[in-house]
Amino acid sequence: MHTSSLQQNILAELDHELATTRKLLALVPYEQADYQPHPKSMKLGQLASHIVNLLAFKQLFVQHPSRDFLDPNGPKPGPSPTNHEELMARFEEYSASLRVALEQATDEELTHSFRLHRGEQTLLEYPKATAIRIMGLNHSIHHRGQLSVYLRLLDVPIPAMYGPSADEPNW
């Protein structure tokens, strides 16, 4: 029987999700970055940037005990990419730095608490590994699903993700 660590499990899941996210982001038609399927929806470029910036957010969970949204000195994403090349470069940079942070984290460190808060108001508090999965991976998967709908509405063929897609039926 093969045993693996908490860190190894998270890295395996991360690698799978990064590969899928990379495939979808590669298809974003940046010339349509202002596309918005509904007035309450993010624009295509904003959504793609948000998905990429969430990688830095996940790294925060690994390397820090908390994040206060009211702290003016807290980490913030860089300026939004202005083209597809910048989007993909940031994705690769943030993916690599997140992976390094996770590789350097021990299982014990991943059981330490992470608190996301706004001043005294706690928004969430979980062990780091749980925060990475819930507010990191699951959050990213949610927005990646939104992105796949945007792309479908723009007639961009959708790649297989967890099984065949209508555009790649023989996955």
UniProtKB/TrEMBL annotation:
Signal sequence interval, chain numbering: none
Gene3D superfamilies hit by this protein: dinb family like domain (1.20.120.450)
Highest taxon listed in the record's lineage: Bacteria
Metal-binding recorded as keyword: yes
Pfam families attached to this UniProt entry: DinB
Keyword terms, alphabetized: Metal-binding
Protein family membership: Belongs to the DinB family.
Protein name as catalogued: DinB family protein
